[in-house]
């Protein structure tokens, strides 16, 4: 858990039932194939209204920017699209030439170093969306305050697993759960 006076860092990950955040080709489309219903859409919109700074790795940033900046995204989910486009964002990358998506800051240093500094600054909380390698890096550095995992009712058989390459044991305490009619289960964890 975060110390008093520090910004909180959360991560939001969608995984398959067999623990992958991306399939063997690196595609995360399975996460968006959940049956859309009012209950799920209200949950997603509520998360979007949470505010804070959104943090991304390069791959997730490129996927998010290519979708949420489109008119189709604004029509499909106006609350989330507005938040994604207007909110402050940080992308960690050494290879991007520039961060073109509105309100995005490009950070070229290691994510744990930058996040440690950002947590000590004044400002709103931060949320990592997707970005499995960034989540793993900050979790290994002891910087993660909350991990929200959505388990989707699909098995991929292979892919990139959540927290792969962590390099150390990470003990977590289950803080809350929620089961949705569309088959998704949300688990909230905090480091012990």
Mean pLDDT comes to: 90
**Helical segment count:** 6
**N to C succession of SSEs:** EEHEHHHEEHEHEEEE
CATH H-level name... which superfamily?
Answer: Dihydrofolate Reductase, subunit A
Into which percent range does the helicity of residues fall? 25-40%
Total domain units: 1
CATH architecture descriptor: 3-Layer(aba) Sandwich
Tell me the strand percentage band.
25-35%
Low-confidence parts: none
Q: What name does CATH use for the topology?
A: Dihydrofolate Reductase, subunit A
The CATH class assignment is: Alpha Beta
Whole-Å distance between the termini? 8 Å
Number of strands: 10
Notes on the structure:
It is a single chain. This protein is of the alpha/beta class and 192 residues long. It has one domain (9-191): Dihydrofolate Reductase, subunit A. 29% of the residues lie in helices and 27% in strands. The chain has helices at residues 38-48, 58-68, 71-76, 78-86, 111-120, 132-140, and strands at 9-15, 20-23, 53-57, 89-92, 104-107, 126-129, 146-151, 159-161, 172-179, 185-191. The strands form 2 sheets. It has an 8-stranded mixed β-sheet with strand order 5-4-3-6-1-7-10-9. The protein has a two-stranded antiparallel ribbon with strand order 2-8. The longest helix is centred in the N-terminal third of the chain and has 11 residues, at 38-48. It is globular and about 40 Å long. The mean pLDDT is 90.
Could you outline the blueprint of secondary structure elements for this entry?
Elements (H helix, E strand, L loop, with lengths): L8 E7 L4 E4 L14 H11 L4 E5 H11 L2 H6 L1 H9 L2 E4 L11 E4 L3 H10 L5 E4 L2 H9 L5 E6 L7 E3 L10 E8 L5 E7 L1
Parallel strand pairs: 1-6, 1-7, 3-4, 3-6, 4-5
Antiparallel strand pairs: 2-8, 7-10, 9-10
């Amino acid at each position: 858990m975060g110390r008093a006076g520090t910004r909180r860092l959360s991560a939001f990950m969608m995984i398959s039932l067999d623990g992958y955040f991306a399939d063997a080709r690196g595609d995360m489309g399975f996460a968006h194939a959940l049956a859309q219903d009012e209950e799920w859409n209200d949950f997603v919109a509520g998360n979007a209204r949470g505010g804070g700074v959104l943090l991304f790795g390069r791959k997730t940033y490129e996927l998010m920017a290519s979708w949420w900046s489109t008119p189709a995204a604004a029509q499909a989910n106006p609350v989330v699209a507005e938040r994604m486009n207007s909110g402050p964002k940080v992308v960690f990358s050494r290879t991007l030439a520039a961060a073109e998506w509105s309100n995005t800051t490009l950070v070229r240093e290691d994510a744990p170093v930058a996040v440690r500094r950002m947590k000590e600054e004044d400002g709103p909380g931060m949320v990592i969306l997707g970005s499995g390698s960034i989540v793993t890096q900050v979790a290994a550095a002891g910087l993660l305050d909350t991990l929200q995992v959505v388990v989707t009712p699909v098995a991929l058989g292979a892919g990139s697993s959540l927290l792969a390459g962590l390099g150390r044991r990470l003990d977590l305490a289950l803080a809350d759960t929620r089961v949705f009619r569309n088959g998704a289960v949300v688990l909230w964890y905090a480091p012990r």
